[in-house]
Amino acid sequence: MIQKVYQLVFFILLFTNINLFSEEEKDPTPLFYWNIGGGMSLNLHSANFTNLGDIPCCSPEEYGAQTALSWGANAGLYFPFTQNWLVGFDIGIVDLSADFVSNETNIGKTQVRNSSGEIAIKDVEVEYILKPELLKTSINLGIKYRFNNGFLIGVGTRLGYFISSDFEQYEKIVTPDNVTFVPEESLVRNKYSEEIPDINPVSIAPNLWLAYPLMSIGNVTVSPEISYFFNLSNVNSNDWQVNNLNIGVSLGGIFYKSIEEKVLRDTVYLRDTFEIQDYAAKDESIKLISREVSEEKEEINSSTTAYHFTINEKYEKRINRASGLIAKVETYGIDKNGRAIEVPLVVIEEFESIEGFPLLPYVYYEKGDYLLGTSSQNIISSGETAGFIPEKLKSNIDTVLSNMVNIIAKRMRDAQLMKLKLSSFYSKDLGIRKDVAEKRASEIKKYMTNVWNISDERISLDLKDVEIDTGSKDYQDLLEEARRVEFSSSSLQMSEPVFISDIFRSSNPPLIGIDFTSGGTNKTTYLAKATQDGRVLRTYSGGVENKGTDKIEWDITKEPIPQREKNIDVALEVKDKFGNIARDSASIKIEQITVKKKREIRQDDVVFEKYTLVVFDYNSSEITKVQRNIINMIKGKIKSNSSVQIEGYADRTGTGAYNKNLAKDRCNNVLGYLKTEENKGAKFSIHPIGSSKFIYDNDTPVGRSLSRCVRIIIATPVGD
Question: What is the rounded distance in angstroms from the CA atom of residue 304 to the CA atom of residue 314?
Answer without folding.
Answer: 33
